[in-house]
Amino acid sequence: MSTIRERLEESQVPIYFVAVVVAALAAFLVQGTAALEVAINPALAFMLFVTFLQVPLAELGKAFSRFKFLGVLLLTNFVIIPCIVGVLVQFLPGDPMLRLGVLLVLLAPCIDYVVTFSHLGRADSRLLLAATPILLIVQMIALPIYLGFLLGKDAASLVQAEPFLHAFVWLIASPLALAITVQCWAKTNRFGEKISAVLGFLPVPATSLVLFVVVASVLPQLGSATGAALTVFPVYAVFAVLAPFAGWLAGRMFGLSPTEGRAIAFSASTRNSLVVLPLALAVPGAVPVLPTVIVTQTLVELLSQLVYVRVMPLLGRSLEASKSEQNRQRQEDRELGTSLPRKRQPRS
After folding, report:
1. Neighbours of 210 (CB within 10 A)
2. Percentages helix, strand, coil for the chain, rounded to the nearest 5?
3. What's the DSSP call for residue 117?
4. CB 215 within 8 A of CB 27
5. Could you tell me if 279 and 168 are in contact, meaning their C-beta atoms sit under 8 angstroms apart?
């Protein structure tokens, strides 16, 4: 059973691309796929539920106890990354709708498949998983503030509080509460334990379902928004290069371990495009520009992950080797010390 889960996680990038391709074919060959838009929020809620279900309650407490890691994680995602995004967005045309889409997606750190990608990239994925509820709550609070600051007067007419409150209740609070309930049930009931184990196989299929629903519902509505995708592509490409190194440097600056530093790098570079899409669709006149801008970032990010999972393990490898050598030397010294005969003390 665990082998199946591991294979799903290791093959998630190809699985996601297959979901996108199948959704694109369905959008062009089948009439009425735009109606799938109503299924985006339920699919997202289910995806987040099975994601939160992987967060052991003890690990959630562990995230709060690791103050340095959590502090660097929040500093990176809500101070350093917004500074980078604030600079990059200046290279875009002045169209507020275009800028809103880029800001929405790049200011929101990922809380779902980043955990598996970080595991494949030899990062501290369990610590990052435990921090996912914190990241999601903070970004829902911070997003309106950042949008108001970076968009100025245009934000008032485009961004409203109601979609954020709706997203918090149905995409954060409800899935998290349900996941905690199932975890408690699994601890006291064997049947609940089996249900929890079966649900543990579903994060990758659930994310694939969300990708399918999003792409199949959005593509028929794109119309003439291809130009918007081409405009934002260079910004996403530059972000994909700068963000992971900014996260890694932040981790090194504060003395985190290599595995913790890689986790920060993965979090900095992976964005919450699927979760912010309902917020974008709630903006008046969002279609076709905002969905196009957000889905474009998702595709760039999936391609980038293929590079990250191979490059990230190289970060800090020399440091790990050095620590391993130091530990080996200490062990040899201890063994040598115990094997030497004790020097006899002269009698007084």
Report:
1. 25
2. 80, 0, 15
3. H
4. yes
5. no
Amino acid at 65: S
Q: What's the pLDDT tens digit per position in 277-322?
A: 888 877 877 778 888 899 899 889 988 988 998 999 988 775 555 5
Number of H helices and E strands in the chain, helices first, is: 20, 0
Domain 2-327 in CATH 1.20.1530.20: yes
Q: pLDDT by residue (tens digit) across 114-128?
A: 888 888 888 988 888
Decide if 138 contacts 75 (C-beta within 8 A).
no
CA–CA gap between residue 254 and residue 149 (Å, rounded): 28
Q: Report in angstroms the alpha-carbon separations of 169 from 136, 139, 172.
A: 12, 14, 6
Number of residues assigned to the chain: 348
Q: At what angle do helices 289-311 and 273-281 cross, to 10 degrees?
A: 170
Q: What is the pLDDT of residues 199-221, one digit of tens each?
A: 988 888 998 999 899 888 888 87
Q: Any idea where the domains of the chain sit in the sequence?
A: 2-327
Rg (CA), the chain: 23
Extract the tokens encoding 212: 């399918």
Rounded Cα–Cα distance for residues 258 and 123 (Å):
8
Is pLDDT at 339 greater than 60 in this prediction? no
| CA 241, chain centre distance (Å) | 16
pTM of the model: 0.82
Any idea what the Cα angle at residue 27 is, between residues 14 and 9, rounded to 5°? 20
Give the pair of three-digit tokens for residue 76. 């990176």
Considering all CA atoms of the chain, what is the largest pairwise distance in Å, rounded to the nearest integer? Answer: 101
